[in-house]
Every structure is written in structure tokens, then in C-alpha cells.
Amino acid sequence: LTPRSRRYVLCEVVSEEPRCRQCIEDRAVNLAVRDAVGRVHGDYGLACCSISFTVKYLNAYTGTVLLRCRKDSYRLLCSALPFVRQLESRGQRYPCCLRTLHVGGTIRTCQKFLIQYNRRQLLVLLQNCTNEEERQCIQKSLLSCSLTEEQSRSGDEDDDDGTE
Predict the structure, then answer these.
(1) What is the model's pLDDT at position 155?
(2) Does the keyword Amino-acid biosynthesis apply (predicted)?
(3) Letter string b/e over residues 71-100, b meaning 16 or more CB atoms within 10 A of that residue's CB
(4) Could you state, in order of their start, the residue ranges of all structural domains in the chain?
(5) What's the pTM value of the predicted model, to 2 decimals?
(6) Helix orientation angle between 132-143 and 107-127, rounded to the nearest 10 degrees
(7) Which of 14, 16, 25, 111 gives 20 to 30 Å between its CA and that of 87?
């Protein structure tokens, strides 16, 4: 597959259980998403989505998940994501859902979107500060939001076909 034939789906794990984010793993997200696709779209949808599907990035601390799939099946994938109701890890089940934040043609476009999204979230927190110490901490975080260039870039990030 060429980089132009892929889509990257940026999601956020939403859970009221505080331990959920700390315990999520790539494998658990992969299995939960595949299960949801199978329930919603059956064997055909599962087969379409399984080709080239992978969890490219998972940040358990922030609950950010980046999924990769083929361009022609990303709509099937995105339509099944709201049906993820739990993640299972280490024998425990955690009720949660996946909120789709952005669909991009490259990892880089998703990174840029995530920076802007986090900046907006920090601004909301800044408006809701109760004391000066909180305000200064959030202002410092806002100023540190940036995308840094890496020395070696993978092929996933090089090509951007402009569709998102």
C-alpha cells in the first residue's frame, strides 16, 4: 500500500473510570475496534477494515489513539467506533468509548490537529481556573505546545495528499 491509500483516524478514549486510561494497551484497542466493526458491518466490513488496520500510536496518559486503515474502508471503521463500549486489559473490563477527533491522510496532519485541539482544551481549562497557581501552570503548558521536527521521518509522514 502506498501512503496515499491510507487514512489515519485520531481518537480519544473517554471513560469515567480513572484507571481505564492507565491500563489500555494497543492490543486491547485493536481487539475492541475489530469487535465493533464485526458487530456493526459483519464479516464483509471486518474483512475490509482488517486489511492494513493497525493501532499506530497509543498514549495511555492522555487517552489519545491513532488508528491506520485503508483509504477505501475508513468510513466503515469510523462508523463502528461509537460502538466500542469497553476495553479489556489484564482480565479487567473498563467501560469507555472512542471519540473520533480527526481523520487525516498522514500522521503529520493528525499531529498538527492534535496540537491545535490540545491548545483549545488548555484555553478552556484556563478560563475555568480557580487560582493564580493553576492559571500560571496552564499558561506555561499553552506556550510549550509545538510540533518539533524529527531527524528521521518514516514514509507514513512524508506524503500528504491534501484530503482529510
Answers:
(1) 47
(2) no
(3) bebbebbbebbebbebbbbeeeebebbbeb
(4) 1-105, 107-150
(5) 0.78
(6) 160
(7) 111
| Sequence-separated contacts (24+) of 51-56 with Cβ below 8 Å | 52/1, 52/6, 53/77, 54/30, 55/26, 55/29, 55/30, 56/8, 56/107, 56/156
The answer to whether 81 and 29 have CB atoms below 8 angstroms apart is no
Choose the CATH number for 1-105 among 3.30.70.3250, 3.90.320.10, 3.30.200.210, 3.10.20.30: 3.30.70.3250
Residue given cell 469497553 in the structure block = 86
What is the edge-to-edge ordering of all strands in the sheet holding 6-14? 54-59, 64-70, 6-14, 97-104
How far does Cα 129 stand from its chain's mean position?
A: 27
Per-residue cell: 26: 494497543
**What integer pLDDT is reported at residue 146 of this predicted model?**
59
